[in-house]
């Protein structure tokens, strides 16, 4: 209550926007690769937001694919380059699904 006995009402509303982060590609194709030969592709994690954000790539360390880094921070309005290596040990078709988790990412 205010001094004169009147009640004051106060409301506050807000909306929080998540970080605008995207990958340069949703899939990487390596094509035909000789056994015991290493090849690589580039994946960029692009941060279009005004603040830095953290990412983590959930990968299987025992697979034929490896990443130059699995965790890191992307600066505002910048990108981080991830080198994805592939070195097959035997003949076969290889497929791996990995997930990139971004802290406070906006809802897609």
Describe the 3D structure:
It is a single chain. This protein is an all-beta fold and 108 residues long. The protein has no helices and 7 strands. It has strands spanning 21-23, 39-47, 53-58, 65-67, 71-74, 78-86, 99-102. The strands form 2 sheets. Strands 1-2-6-4 form a 4-stranded antiparallel sheet, with no helix packed on it. A 3-stranded antiparallel sheet has the order 5-3-7, with no helix packed on it. The chain starts with 20 loop residues before the first strand and ends in a 6-residue tail after the last strand.
Concise synopsis of the structure shown:
With 108 residues, the protein is mainly β. It has no helices and 7 strands.
Arrangement of strands in the largest sheet: 1-2-6-4
- Shape assignment: rod-shaped
**Count of strand segments:** 7
**CA-CA gap between termini:** 44 Å
Q: Evaluate the radius of gyration.
A: 22 Å
Give the low-pLDDT segments: none
Q: Give the mean pLDDT.
A: 89
Helical percent range?
under 10%
Number of helices: 0
How is the biggest beta sheet arranged? 4 strands, antiparallel
Structural class: mainly beta
Series of H and E elements: EEEEEEE
Q: In what range is the share of β-strand residues?
A: 35-45%
